[in-house]
Amino acid sequence: MNATQQPRLILLCGLPGSGKTTLARRLAEAVPAVRLCPDEWMADLGVDLFDEGTRDRLERRFWLHAQELLRLGQPVILEFGFWARSERDEKRLGARALGVPVELHYLSAPVDELCRRLEARSATGGSGTAPVTREMLKEYAQLFEAPTDDELGLYDAPPPPGRRK
């Protein structure tokens, strides 16, 4: 960690295909930060990406690890999707209890665009990606709790680009 870097929790929120991984990778390099992505870990471990029990356990472990890293002064990116406000609130309040700023990056796109991106991603066969059909995406969109303007106001703004490194 360089002398100007401060611990910071960065949450990436959005549906599949919204660009979370692309942004997370960019931020991880720019900040720099530790990026924790359940999809990639599950794929690397040979676990079905739709195994919700394993995903829940992994995300709980990642959160414990993230808190340890934040205590040590390391910025952390959690790339969980954060579909529910309660999940976002838990992480925001937990990081604030550690005295750490928290950013929420909400990525949104129309379902047709998400489907187009997911089809393109599936065609390349990237590691750590699961095939998501239009029907699944429509179901996910119904379950997803998009952050409101009031909720977004509870988070810290990212530091200016020149202040990241």
UniProtKB/TrEMBL annotation:
Domain of life: Bacteria
Pfam family, one: AAA_33
UniProt xrefs under Gene3D superfamilies: P-loop containing nucleotide triphosphate hydrolases (3.40.50.300)
InterPro entries named in the record: P-loop_NTPase
Protein name: ATP-binding protein
